[in-house]
Amino acid sequence: MKTILTGIRPTGHLHLGHYFGAVGNWAKLQNDYETYIEIADVQALTDNFESPDKVIKSVKDLTVDLLSIGIDPNKANIFIQSLIPEIAELTIFYSNLVTISRLERNPTVKTEIKQKKELFGENGESITYGFLGYPVSQAADITAFKGNLIPVGDDQLPLLEQCREIVRKFNNIYGKTLLEPEAYLSKFPRIKGTDGNEKMGKSLGNAIFLADSDEEVKRKVMSMVTDPNKIKINDPANPDICMVYYYHKLIGNNNLTTVCEECKNGKRGCVACKKELLSKMLEFLKPVHEKQKYYNEHPEEVDEILKKGTKIAQEKAKETIKEVKRAMKINYFE
Ligand code: SF4
Fold first, then answer.
1. What pLDDT digit, counting tens, does each position of 154-194 carry?
2. In what order do the strands lie in the sheet with 76-80?
3. Separation of 116 CA from ligand 1 center, angstroms?
4. For a Cys staple, 305 with which of 10, 73, 74, 152, CB 3.0–4.6 Å?
5. Residue of the nearest CA to atom 3 in ligand 1?
6. What is the pTM assigned to this prediction?
7. Of all residues in the chain, what percent are helix, strand and coil, respectively (each to 5)?
8. Could you tell which of 243, 244, 271 is best to mutate to test the pocket of ligand 1, judged by most ligand atoms within 8 Å of the CB?
9. What domains can be seen in the chain, in order of their start residue?
């Protein structure tokens, strides 16, 4: 059975962008693969090192969200990154196999540095050693659990390629030890925000969270961006530039053809259209909210799930680090 390694930074609740872009698919993959889901708290600290409380709280929230969308702890191991010290050891070994200029050239890292500069200004927040090195830490995550299939969006392919380069270099120097991972490309790598932005994101203020109350979902749906040329209720409009139609599609509304035809022919008002979407959206979120409520009321169960998943992950990572040290001939006194 192939092994899937996937991870997510604990920086808040999951939103629909996470669900449709990646996480929802993990619930299917866990049936066919040995699955490890890393709560990447160490990586989250690269951006939040001054506020670890935020990260710690998010570990539990994120785990509750994962369980609520159908991740089955009997099929998938959910674990906490910082409790696997072998990842940190591997990161140190791998850091000798990557040049600084190669990290700076990594397109994903370059984009993130650009975003940081836009946010903090050229002379604002400077890039830390930890941030620049996170692709190396990701290579350690992947190889520690012998992950050979990695679910990614196309924007993350450069990170995976960086990992493959590290693996090849390690194997060339020390002998074939590590597995070269392959990408499992997500069908919907990026989900648009409610405002029409190409990406849904917490900091962009355009996300619908899985933990949003019905009232919050209502407010967000009713303020979604529609075709600006539709002024009157009977004006024909273009659903392809309307976020309400986009979410009707995403949610899988089986009335989609009617929505599209009525919109184009001016037979549908935007308020009614949004109300229909809201009803479908709440229907979709209902079982998620029920499970969230259950797990929030049973935090001891969430802790047990995390402990169990972390123990299994620790055992796997211990095996890997032994093999790596043996290959590097630093297995003193073994
Ligand atoms: Fe969008 Fe619906 Fe209005 Fe058409 S009728 S513009 S699909 S909200």
1. 888 999 999 999 999 999 999 999 999 999 987 766 899 99
2. 76-80, 34-39, 3-8, 149-152, 182-185
3. 35
4. 73
5. 270
6. 0.90
7. 60, 10, 35
8. 244
9. 3-191+299-328 (3.40.50.620), 214-292 (1.10.240.10)
